[in-house]
């Protein structure tokens, strides 16, 4: 990650991918058991590039850090890093970064015949029905969330 793209009136902090040569990270060919590991499994590894895995369209991909708790039910917690693809089409049910009336927000899209509703994933927040007077830009679709555990 590199160049921070500051945006005024934003609860998200945006970044663009670095121009780095990926060396890859070792990955096991086997799955990782969440139960009892099999001692018979040999550890075999190959390399994986997180850039190649997470970024499908480099020119249209951005990162943004989440601020707030309106999407915790979708697994997007305060401080998480989102991978956003601006080349993807907005679809009903997708999680999107939207620019609404001068501010960025991340919500689940509910696209109806005559309305768009931005749905939070936390019962403490209310859905936002986008009115005809609202200025809405569906800025990009969230494809991955990167979090610290």
Task: Outline the structure in words.
The protein has 149 residues and is mainly β. It has 1 helix and 11 strands. The strands form 2 sheets. Strands 1-2-5-6-11-7-8-9-10 form a 9-stranded antiparallel β-sheet, with no helix packed on it. The chain starts with a strand and ends with a strand. 19% of the residues are buried.
Task: List the topology elements.
Blueprint: E1 4-5, E2 13-15, E3 25-28, E4 45-48, H1 50-54, E5 61-65, E6 81-85, E7 95-100, E8 103-111, E9 116-119, E10 128-130, E11 136-146
Antiparallel strand pairs: 1-2, 2-5, 3-4, 5-6, 6-11, 7-8, 7-11, 8-9, 9-10
Descriptors for this entry?
globular; two-stranded antiparallel ribbon; disordered N terminus; Peptidase_S24_S26A/B/C; mainly beta; DNA repair; 149 residues
The protein's oligomeric status is single chain
Indicate the overall shape: globular
Report helical residue fraction: under 10%
Largest sheet features:
9 strands, antiparallel
What is the typical, i.e. mean, pLDDT?
82
Assess the beta-strand content as a share of residues. Answer: 35-45%
- Cα-atom radius of gyration: 18 Å
Please identify the structural class as seen in this structure. mainly beta
Order of SSEs? EEEEHEEEEEEE
| Widest β-sheet, arrangement of strands | 1-2-5-6-11-7-8-9-10
**Distance between the first and last residues' Cα:** 19 Å
**Count of helical stretches:** 1
Uncertain residue ranges: 1-9
Number of E-type strands: 11
